[in-house]
Amino acid sequence: MTETGRLETFADGVFAIAITLLVLGIVPPAPDEDLGPALLQHWPEFAAYVVSFLTIGIMWVQHHRLFTLIRRSNTSFAMINVGFLMLVAFVPFPTDVLAQRLGSGVDTVGASLLYGGKMVGIAVMFNAIWLYASAHDGHLLGSAASPGGRVEARGYRYGVPDLPGHHAARLREPVSQPGRLRGFRGLLGAPDQRPVRRRLNRQPAARLAGRQCDSMRK
């Protein structure tokens, strides 16, 4: 097991290079062209640049958030990250292809499939990073033992949040208004005090009934 500092530094470098290379796909207008109309003709390149820049930026933010939970690494985990970063570095190429095809109108469907397939591959590898890190009782998660780490980690799981069993049972109570209130109060961590009050209210009556039985026996 090793720390993740070098892995994060390498990932930041790949993200920075990929996001910078996007601008190279924008071809400047010829010197003898009117600037305004020429820039309008290059709208597909600007649009593809903006979309891919924001996409890589979002991926970098999520990768950074992920490594606030992941504190350790090993060879297999590092190689999964290498595969993920390989696809991130590939982003400028399908971005250029899509921009060119949108400008020419030739085989835009194929260019869109190439761009979308690249995004699917990145999503698969991103989930592979989390699944490997959280496997085997979260052996790579530095904060997995803390309540805050468990809450933060739910954002990377599939499907609905993993609610504790007793909280989920409260949500499945009858659809009456008191039942709903008890369920939501339980989710917020506020204990339901009404059963306790009921028990307290019943205790004097129970003691009185017991005293009456004792007097009758005497």
Number of helices: 10
The shape, in one word, is elongated
Percentage of residues in helical conformation: over 70%
- Structural class by sheet pairing and helices: mainly alpha
Tell me about the largest β-sheet: 2 strands, antiparallel
| SSE sequence, one letter per element | EHHHEHHHHHHH
Structural description of this entry:
The structure is a single chain. With 218 residues, the protein is mainly alpha-helical. The protein contains ten helices and two strands; from the N terminus they run E-H-H-H-E-H-H-H-H-H-H-H. It has helices at 5-21, 35-41, 43-66, 75-89, 92-104, 108-138, 147-153, 165-171, 177-187, 194-217, and strands at 2-3, 72-73. Strands 1-2 form a two-stranded antiparallel ribbon. The longest helix has 31 residues, at 108-138. It is elongated, with a radius of gyration of 29 Å.
A few lines on this structure:
The protein has helices at residues 5-21, 35-41, 43-66, 75-89, 92-104, 108-138, 147-153, 165-171, 177-187, 194-217; strands at 2-3, 72-73. With 218 residues, the chain is an all-alpha fold.
Map the helices and strands.
Elements: E1 2-3, H1 5-21, H2 35-41, H3 43-66, E2 72-73, H4 75-89, H5 92-104, H6 108-138, H7 147-153, H8 165-171, H9 177-187, H10 194-217
Antiparallel strand pairs: 1-2
Features:
mainly alpha; 72% helix; two-stranded antiparallel ribbon; elongated; 218 residues; single chain
